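Entry for the shared binder. Reason: the reviewer on the internal report wants the predicted structure included alongside the sequence.
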Amino acid sequence: MVDSSMSSLHSFSGAFGGGANEMTAVLEPARAMFRGLIVERIMALEAYRKLVQHGENPQDELAKIAGIAHKISGVGATLGFFRTGQLAGNLDRAITENPAKCADPAYFQLIIDPMLESLLMEMESLLDD
């Protein structure tokens, strides 16, 4: 099954005049820009996390976390950062499906914060690549 999938991928990319190496080369500037924004996004997520925990309006801060996670989810997966995209998408969905529940301190601590921490750790690992 994998061999036929790879064969199809090579046929598909060959039809457009390039192979996987050319696609990687084309995406590399975007991948570098994505990595360049990681520190800024980590800092923003950490700041919003503190505001959720200690601020006056946690739902607003959760919406900001979800917004950043949504962007990371779509762009990360497109650029080949699949695990980062998956973790960000899970966090985005968890928050947007029930923001009021997520703003509850106990629920945030038990469910949302560990998801956020996993995403942050994954993002930090991209800095090492």
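Summary line for the report: The mean pLDDT is 86.
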